TrEMBL record:
Protein's UniProt keywords contain Chloroplast: no
GO molecular function per UniProt: transferase activity
Protein name: Phosphotransferase enzyme family protein
Swiss-Prot/TrEMBL keywords: Transferase
Residue ranges of domain Aminoglycoside phosphotransferase in the record: 94-154
Length: 214
């Protein structure tokens, strides 16, 4: 059995300790996590840094318990500086998009995380590890980069966020690593349909990305 109190909670799921070395992530709305588990297993087999999956059963995903802060926490405490954080995000994108898609017959298609931001990167002793693959799909890598920029910009344009200013700095540093962001309109449309914010806030974030390009 796992502990009654979650180790962590996100927008759609809670994570519970299962002994010292494993966790169970449980989706609150039910569903089936097998496709996500299969993707993570594929990526791990290709050498991409994801948690090892042990079991997928309905809404429950049992996997390795990772030790370390999220990249967001490391940026806030100063354990990781802004430029290094941006480079970590850009490098994780580059490594992911260097792999062929698992299912698509299109040779240009790649696996897209579509939620790759500092809260979904764990900084472990073995290096950064990417978590939360529930939004993943296959397609053009430019969409994935645009989504990361957009999500960071959402924080940068939030007047209530205590980390709005450093998020703006992170956005600028990320764009310096990636170069021009393409498919921003497509990312904004997808984020409006699937994300937590209303269309006005998403539009503000997209405008910030364009402004950050200079």
């Amino acid at each position: 059995m796992f502990a009654a109190t979650p180790l962590a909670s996100g927008r759609c799921a809670d994570v519970y300790a299962l002994g010292a070395d494993r966790v169970i992530r449980r989706n609150r709305d039910g569903g089936d996590v097998r496709a996500e588990a299969e993707l993570m297993t594929y990526l791990r087999g290709q050498g991409y840094p994801v948690p090892e999956v042990f079991r997928a059963d309905g809404p429950d995903l049992e996997m390795t318990r990772l030790a370390g802060p999220t990249l967001a926490e490391a940026l806030v405490t100063g354990a990781t500086d802004i430029r290094s954080g941006a480079r970590i995000l850009a490098t994780l994108h580059h490594r992911l998009h260097a792999l062929r898609a698992r299912l698509s017959p299109d040779p240009a298609a790649r696996v897209l995380h579509l939620d790759l931001h500092p809260q979904n990167v764990m900084v472990t002793a073995d290096g950064p590890v990417v978590i939360d693959w529930g939004s993943a799909r296959e397609g053009r890598p430019e969409l994935d980069l645009a989504m990361t920029a957009l999500i960071v910009a959402e924080v940068a344009t939030d007047p209530t966020s205590p980390v709005a200013a450093p998020a703006g700095d992170l956005l600028t540093a990320f764009l310096a690593e990636t170069g021009p962001i393409r498919l921003l309109d497509s990312a904004a449309s997808l984020r409006t349909r699937t994300g937590p914010l209303d269309p006005r806030r998403v539009a503000q974030a997209a405008a910030r990305v364009r402004t950050a390009h200079g």
